[in-house]
Every structure is written in structure tokens, then in C-alpha cells.
Write a structure and sequence with these properties.
Largest sheet: 4 strands, parallel
Low-confidence stretches: none
CATH class of the largest domain: Alpha Beta
Number of domains: 3
Strand content: 5-15%
Radius of gyration: 20 Å
Mean pLDDT: 92
Strand order of the largest sheet: 2-1-3-4
CATH superfamily of the largest domain: 4-hydroxy-3-methylbut-2-enyl diphosphate reductase, catalytic domain
Number of strands: 8
CATH topology of the largest domain: Cobalt-precorrin-4 Transmethylase, domain 1
Order of helices and strands: HEHEHEHEHEHEHEHEHH
């Protein structure tokens, strides 16, 4: 019989923003029996199914337009200003579980936009967090997923650069350095969540210790994809 040893990374699990959103949802479910949630509360099918059994009702933005006089949870990804305006018009009670890191990023992007800066966001097209960030600029900021895509745009001399909170820190600074090498002045705002970025080095050390790594994540999770790549690069 093989002497199989299985170790679980002590830092694995949901980030604090997701844990906070789940706790808020459970509190409201215990109080009211049901609660609407705008989009999946977390990119984890089992957890979504568990909360659905407790009364969580997942809806999308089109359904939100027809909802009135109800309680709706805003998940950790955050939402654009248009969602809050719709809630006022439809008398919806928002339970705002937006991650504090995301809210701070939204405010910084809005400040840059109000100052007429050219805002560029390193992030995933269509991602809920990115849509919330875009909303702070009246959807005028440029979103790009890699350097090749960014270079397809006519770039200004001065660039204000932000990042989705779960992107790769290494890639962010690689983009910054490439732009500066091409003669652009870059105001680089490292807005990547430190709970995500700080996991990188610890995860590399963890992955290097073992013969084989099994990485478990929701396939829609941007954070999961970044951390999976860290494991794969370290222990292919």
C-alpha cells in the first residue's frame, strides 16, 4: 500500500469579501426566509446550491428591472451606479455586501475620471467587478485583458492605469513597464487585493513541496484562475 499523504493549504478557501457576503446573506435568510441576490454570490456551485436551498434567489440584471419592493443582496464584486439608481426607482432594499477593497477601487477610478484622466483598466471583459468599475466612468474607460489587446488602441501620452482586484501583480507591473518603455507616462495604481497577491509566494512554496497538486476552484473564478496558474508554473 502506498504511503499517501494529503495536505491542504492552510490559506485555501474564500477571501474575506466573499465570506462577508455569505454571512450577510445567511443573516437575512434567517430573518426573512428568502433573499434575492444579483448574480452568483460566489463562483462555487456547491455553495450557491446550499444557499439556494436556504432561500437565496439568484437573479440577473434583466430580472432586477421588473423587481419591486424586495430585498436584494449586492455581492462582493460590487455594482455600477446604475444599479443603485434602479433600486431607488423600484423601491428595492439593497443589502450591500460589496467588498471594501472593490469599493475603494471604485472611488479611486471615479476620482480619476472626474479629473478628466484617461483611465485604462487591466481586467476581464464582462466580469461583474469590471462592469462596476466601468460604471464609475460612464463606461468610457478602456478595459483590456493583455498587452496585445491594449496596443490595438490609440494610446494617449498620459495613462492612468488600474487593475481588477484579482489580476496577476506580475502582469500588472509588466504592462506598466512596457508602456513606460514605449514612452508613455503611466500613473500606475496597484489596486490588486493583497489577500490575493500575498497568496502567490506562499502558494509557490506550498506547491513546490509536493509530488502532485490538485487545485479546486470554480471555473468562473478569476481569482481561481490566477492562483491555478501560480501552481501550474511552480509544479507543472
Amino acid at each position: 500500500m502506498h504511503n499517501l499523504r494529503v495536505h491542504i493549504d492552510s490559506n485555501s478557501g474564500f477571501c474575506f469579501g466573499v465570506v462577508y457576503a455569505i454571512e450577510m446573506a445567511e443573516d437575512m435568510l434567517n430573518e426573512r426566509g428568502y433573499l434575492y441576490c444579483l448574480g452568483d454570490i460566489v463562483h462555487n456551485d456547491e455553495e450557491v446550491a446550499r444557499l439556494t436551498r436556504k432561500g437565496l434567489r439568484i437573479i440577473q440584471h434583466e430580472e432586477l428591472k421588473n423587481l419591486r419592493d424586495e430585498y436584494v443582496l449586492i455581492r462582493a464584486h460590487g455594482e455600477p451606479p446604475s444599479t443603485y439608481q434602479l433600486a431607488l426607482e423600484n423601491n428595492l432594499h439593497l443589502i450591500d455586501a460589496s467588498c471594501p477593497v472593490v469599493l475603494k477601487l471604485q472611488n479611486r477610478i471615479k476620482t480619476s475620471y472626474d479629473k478628466k484622466e484617461q483611465v485604462f483598466i487591466y481586467g476581464k471583459h464582462g466580469h461583474a467587478e469590471v462592469l462596476g468599475l466601468l460604471g464609475q466612468t460612464n463606461n468610457e474607460a478602456v478595459v483590456f485583458e493583455n498587452m496585445e489587446e491594449l496596443l490595438q488602441h490609440e494610446l494617449p501620452e498620459n495613462i492612468t492605469l488600474y487593475s481588477q482586484t484579482t489580476k496577476s501583480t506580475d502582469n500588472f507591473y509588466r504592462i506598466k513597464n512596457t508602456l513606460e518603455a514605449r514612452g508613455h507616462t503611466v500613473d500606475a495604481n496597484d489596486t490588486i487585493c493583497r489577500q490575493v497577491s500575498n497568496r502567490d509566494e506562499a502558494l509557490r512554496r506550498f506547491a513546490a513541496q509536493y509530488d502532485q497538486i490538485v487545485f479546486v476552484s470554480g471555473t468562473k473564478s478569476s481569482n481561481g484562475k490566477v492562483l491555478y496558474q501560480v501552481c501550474k508554473d511552480t509544479n507543472p
